[in-house]
Amino acid sequence: MLSQSLKYAYYPGCVAQGACRELYLSTQALTQKLGIELIELKKAACCGSGTFKEDSQLLEDTVNARNIALAEELNLPLLTHCSTCQGVIGHVDERLKECQSSNSAYLNQVNGLLQKEGCSPYRGSTEVKHLLYALVTDYGLEEISDRVTRKLSNLKCAAFYGCYLLRAQKSMPYDDPFQPEAMENMFRAIGATPVYYRGRTQCCGWPLSSYATNESFKMAGMHIQDALENGADCIVTPCPLCHLNLDSRQPEVEKVIEKKLGLPILHLPQLIALALGVSPQELGLDRHIVSTKPVLEKLGF
């Protein structure tokens, strides 16, 4: 058993509180089941998903320095459950810590803007960590495996990491950014079978969707077909934006590529929580565009 309970400053992000509400629900259900305490940062702002820096790097850094400072006020690590939020906020944290170590005037500029708005300064005293890596490195795969009450035997899961999780930051201390294994190791810990395929570490196409929709959908379709051809029962992703492109837009993807797909796309906490005995209803598995019924039937529901 864990020697002490885990506690995090929880940054839910925008998508999990809107279009992917089931991610918010399943993260809450999973962490409660594991005894992990989340202190939600209700005053946090959108990370910008990489768009703020198109207009101003200072804007992206200041907004996210404030988000990190909210976690620092609690003396807790900032926990994300979105690959994009992790990549953006994590990279800002890296950049500002570099400024801090070199006594750069830039950090003073960022903190000056925060002070002007009555916000706490960025101190560089915490870390930004995705739920996946909190579970793997802080909680531990053995501990999770010991809590499994419903082995996901015979379920073949294809990971889709999201490019922001793997390569937006300069360093990746918890995994290999080009040949990651954290999700596959998690699948094994809960009894599922990992499926390896070419697209698992590539971009889902979401960043292109607003101006090159067909190209975005072709990318998503290629990844889904690749997973299907390698025997996947579902794709599992730690990124709600990837989920939107692969699940919510799958019917549109099918029209563009002129091929029926029908592959369920699960959020990572949904899959883990299922193995821990949480009901599909509590996890919002009825909220998906592509039906998750084939996955549930294979698990005996």
TrEMBL record:
A Pfam family it matches: CCG
PANTHER family, A to Z: COB--COM HETERODISULFIDE REDUCTASE SUBUNIT B 1
InterPro entries membership: Cys_rich_dom, HdrB/HdrD_reductase
Organism the protein comes from: Anabaena cylindrica (strain ATCC 27899 / PCC 7122)
E.C. numbers: 1.3.5.1
One Gene Ontology MF term: succinate dehydrogenase (quinone) activity
Domain Cysteine-rich residue range list: 8-89, 158-247
Record's keyword annotation contains Oxidoreductase: yes
Gene3D superfamilies for this protein: 1.20.1050.140, 3.40.50.11810
Protein name: Succinate dehydrogenase subunit C
Keywords: Oxidoreductase
